[in-house]
Write a structure and sequence with these properties.
Number of helices: 11
Helix content: over 70%
Number of strands: 2
Largest sheet: 2 strands, antiparallel
Number of domains: 2
CATH topology of the largest domain: Four Helix Bundle (Hemerythrin (Met), subunit A)
CATH superfamily of the largest domain: GntR ligand-binding domain-like
Strand order of the largest sheet: 1-2
Order of helices and strands: HHHHEEHHHHHHH
Shape: elongated
Structural class: mainly alpha
Strand content: under 5%
CATH architecture of the largest domain: Up-down Bundle
Low-confidence stretches: 1-5, 242-248
Radius of gyration: 22 Å
Distance between the termini: 54 Å
Mean pLDDT: 80
Length: about 250
């Protein structure tokens, strides 16, 4: 772990600047996250002491301490008693965690999350159809087979369904898209876990996944996107119904 360079203290303080009066802990963390994801700091950089951060941001030390504690829980910083607080990873490595954190502390609108997920899934399906990935296609086939074999066991079916979408994201070859999708899916998980509530719904979902897989295998990006759009419309309607207490 590199030693904390004194000249970086000045840089970090200048980059942060003072916060508006009355800013809550979440805003302290936001300012720190903006700095961490700017790409200007190397992994392992030690942050200035709490008192210096508090003076720079013009907030109490307790606000800085709570913000750093929250960032440590998320794996973004490493707080070492008697040593200091260190940045864990690169900007690209921190992005999925910061996105999840930002969405979690904001007002969550399930319908907006469903729309984001639909857009990401449709584009991922289109990209997957453009890739030549035989290993990825084999993963899709295995997930599809598990879905077929578990039509009578909805818990197992849901796991195979998730594996299918993971395989598709992998085939797309775009790690950032996959990260974004995982963030949104994790926030929707409370609803997605209950999305398929009947054998009929499972049969419908399976047929839709078959269509997606067939389009990807045929390298037909338009068909893959269309098939995923149909699936997302069905899944989103079901999840929205679940949220309001309507189980299909």
């Amino acid at each position: 772990m590199p030693a904390y360079p004194e000249d970086r203290s000045v840089d970090i303080s200048a980059a942060l600047g003072a916060l508006p009066s009355g800013t809550p802990v979440s805003e302290v963390a936001r300012r720190l996250l903006d700095l961490f994801t700017s790409g200007d700091l190397e992994p392992g950089t030690r942050l200035p002491p709490e008192r210096q951060l508090a003076a720079t941001l013009e907030v109490g030390r307790s606000a800085v301490r709570e913000a750093l504690a929250a960032l440590e829980i998320l794996g973004i910083v490493d707080v070492r008693p008697g040593s200091g607080t260190y940045l864990r990873g690169t900007a690209s490595e921190l992005l999925p965690q910061t996105l999840r954190w930002g969405l979690l502390i904001g007002q969550r609108n399930t319908q907006e999350l469903l729309e984001i997920r639909s857009g990401l899934e449709i584009y991922i399906a289109r990209l997957a159809a453009l890739r030549d990935d035989s290993a990825g296609q084999s993963r899709l086939d295995r997930a599809l087979e598990r879905m077929r074999d578990s039509l009578g066991n909805l818990r197992v079916f849901a796991k195979a369904d998730s594996e299918f979408h993971d395989a598709l994201a992998s085939i797309s070859g775009n790690e950032l898209l996959s990260d974004l999708l995982n963030v949104v899916r994790s926030l929707l998980q409370v609803y997605a876990d209950r999305a398929v509530q009947s054998a009929d719904a499972a049969e419908t979902a399976f047929a839709q996944h078959e269509a997606i897989s067939a389009a990807v295998r045929a390298c037909d990006s338009d068909a893959a996107a269309s098939a995923m759009a149909v699936h997302m419309a069905t899944a989103s309607a079901r999840i929205s119904g679940t949220e309001s207490g309507v189980f299909e």
